[in-house]
Amino acid sequence: MAASIEPDTLSTPSIDPEEVAKFSAMAQEWWNPKSKFAPLHKFNPARLSYIRQVLCTHFKREGVDKPLSGLKLLDIGCGGGLVSEPMARLGADMTSVDAGEANIKTAMVHAEEAGLTIHYRHGTAEQILAEGGPEQFDCVLNLEVIEHVADPMRFLDDCAALVKPGGVMIVGSINRTARAFATAIFGAEYVLGWLPRGTHRFNKLVRPGEIEAGLKTAGFNVHTPVGVSYNPLKDSFFISGDSGVNYLMVAEKPARD
Amino acid sequence: MSTHTSLQPDFEGDVVIAGGGLAGLTLALALHKAGLSVGVADGLPIDTQLEEIFDGRSSALAYTSFRMLDAVGAGVHLRPHTQRIEDILVVDGRPEDGVKAGGPGPFCLHFDRREIHPKDDGEPLGYMAENRHTRMALAKASEEAKLSVFAPDRALHMNAHASHADLHLASGKVLRAQVIIACDGKYSTLRDQAGIRTTGWSYGQSGLVCAVQHDQPHQGVAYEYFMPGGPFAILPLPGNRSSLVWTERTKAAEALQTMDIEPFHEALRARFGDFLGEVSLDSPRWCYPLGLKLAERFIDERLVLVGDAARAIHPIAGQGFNLGVRDGAALADILVEAKRTGLDLGSQPVLSRYERWRKTDSLALVAGTDLFTRLYSNDHSLIRLGRGLGMQMVDQIPLARRFFARTAGGETGDLPTLLRGEPLSV
To answer: What structural domains does chain B harbor?
Structure first.
């Protein structure tokens, strides 16, 4: 999730056999609920549940086994694959991109161990667009990444271009509010120590309204954002109506007539 | 850990359950009905026809547990064989306090199911059922649901891999799933093989368990008498029968188990009183040492402990089976949600949610039961007075009575979907 120096070219890294042990150990770390990634594991179930619900409703899917079969999904800023792997298990045809090479290698090793097929690429949304052209994906997952990129609005445009007509984009981020500063930055980084200090910078945060404006310009129908709120008694997150801190937004690209 | 194993498994699915006892089969059916693929292995045949010699003991099923049996399709087969518990009478009594004559002691506490479920046909506080009937009802439900059952075939050991785990059975069969659930009881092999230690202690007391016949109808009332040697419970069975849990110092309990029938009847009458008329033994006598056994962890790599494998608790509060059901209902919520969202069912983030949820509940119950045992198996006059006054206070306050009645019914804390009586599916 931390900001990375963007790679010069899009690539599918090959992993040196000598590196496998190292990346396998890093994967263990990503998937360990007691590691520094603990907050992500607490956060993950609520957003996965929401994403599944949105996709099943939008694409009129139901059923227990692999409801997302045949859908092409792009996960931008995939990290260790905490969202990509569940989506692949639900049947999605996954392409997952991250600007951090170590993240991509870690994710590749873990997916291989889990027996999942995911197309992992080291690179950026801009490079995916340059390589394959627009309108490649039924859904673009743009989760906890826009607050880390250099030019958020251009990044949003690139992501928007990648969505097929009739497809959907899901954006998740942290709001730029006093409360978000108090909880998601000061609380999570300085008081609870959940995230490394400096993970999020306040002036880099993006408001839902700014994303809405950007996506409307790109021709999307944007839904009201939902919140992802923390319940301290249950020590877990849930989808709420409060988008003042963590939020998720759904935007649909109209189908061509 | 290896990624690939060459051998072809005999079953491959989401979940494999080792142990098809009451807790294991209930959970297996719940997951199966919710849409997961489940395999179950048990060392004994899972049969719809069982003789009394299989297990003549009875258990109290909290009303929330029965909701889960209903949800998995076993309740309909079991209900005709159950006795509803309409009232619970808790009596702090010693023979010289008048219990000999069957009357209550100076302090008593009365719970009436109508206080929490007022409708004429409302849920009782609990149900009494013979264990074999519960097992037969679950076997019937398993047959109807076409559950994948491997029995009689004992689970020997498991191997955890990066993406799955294999359970090896005595027959040589291999069952493969993302997660293995150990429902293999107090002496769980899988728990011990995983190196999960248990802590526990015993009370130097044993519970004599048997069924009795009596002349007068019990009206669905359960009695719990607190005596210096330990609690004495009379739990209503169908007809003019009751199940007894008679707790004494271990030596005394063992003597009661082995003594001839005539002196036993004499001792029984002295303790039981005559408020239900003439009483006589109507089953074998079983004797169990009272103790607690708690696993230090409830999870390991691709392994979850459920029921007695996680924590064995002595029969004082009749909560053993109910705890197993509650474990299962909580785990069902977590695994179904994980399946719905595409998570690896055996991964630590998923399994640790189960551990967090159940460990708090277990510790509270273990501590409560322990305190209860020590407080009530005590004849110090001040303690007797204190507990008597406490009971009197609860008895005077309707809100407190309803709270304890719901607690006895298992309706406390963070209640899983199936115990709320709601459907669960992916």
So the answer is: 11-420 (3.50.50.60)
